Amino acid sequence: MAELVTVDDPEDPRLHDYTSLTDVELRRRREPAEGLFIAEGEKVIRRAWQAGYGMRSMMLSAKWVDVMRDVIDAAPAPVYVVDPAVAERVTGYHVHRGALASMRRKELPEPRELLAGDRPGPRRVAVFEDIVDHANMGAAFRNAAALGVDAVLLTPRCADPLYRRAVKVSMAAVLAVPYARFASWPEDAGLLREQGFVLAALCLSDRSVTLDELAGRRHERLALMLGTEGEGLSDGALRAADVHVRIPMEAGVDSLNVAAASAVAFYATRPGT
Hints:
Helices cover 34% and strands 19% of the residues. The chain contains twelve helices and twelve strands. It is elongated. By secondary structure, it is of the alpha/beta class. The chain has helices at 24-34, 42-50, 63-67, 69-74, 84-91, 111-116, 134-146, 164-169, 189-194, 211-217, 235-240, 258-268, and strands at residues 4-6, 36-40, 55-60, 79-81, 99-104, 124-128, 151-154, 179-181, 198-202, 209-210, 222-226, 243-246. The strands form two sheets. The chain has a seven-stranded parallel β-sheet. The chain folds into two domains: 4-104, CATH 3.30.1330.30; 111-268, SPOUT methyltransferase, trefoil knot domain (Alpha/beta knot, 3-Layer(aba) Sandwich), CATH 3.40.1280.10.
């Protein structure tokens, strides 16, 4: 059974994992280096625990102790019970949900390992290029989970999917979809081709086919490539692609937000359609 400890001092070193959660640059450096990520809210904490992530600690307001009792009893980690005012001073914001957990990261697989997988291996994957907005990252992962994408590949500059906001927006879907990060891009696009994937770039292009046409080809292994929120896919990624694909638009709109585009692409290419 976990130890319950009431903490009144926001400077208490035992709360170190939860300090300055609103400082994005600090947390982006600290969390991977220290092997942790923050789960916020009852549902996200439960899903992280159920997904097999180890727990370092929990920080709860008193009203959440009974609600989280089953997790507290199951997780061999200390539980710090704090007043909401203390939680705000520690984290830098008002913790509306009153429940935070510091979870242990898992070691990421290598892209080649992820793509090979157990037989038959992944058939449909997403490649996110330089997506740096954590909300878009979380939403795109949630779309991938909901619409049956087997795995996600990230380019080196992509945001951390385990950053608190990304995990929260995804409703913990980032914990359910296998993912890996390329060491070099677009050079590593060849790893996809080696495994028999057709690389389909979502873009505005003179030579693009419609999404319906791509879906109708029923490729055995398909990698859907989506680019940054502003500029879209890089020239290098477009050159690496086997096919350019567009989502037909009306009313003078030329493109969708990357998270919305991912949902449309994942739905249109799902197996059996």
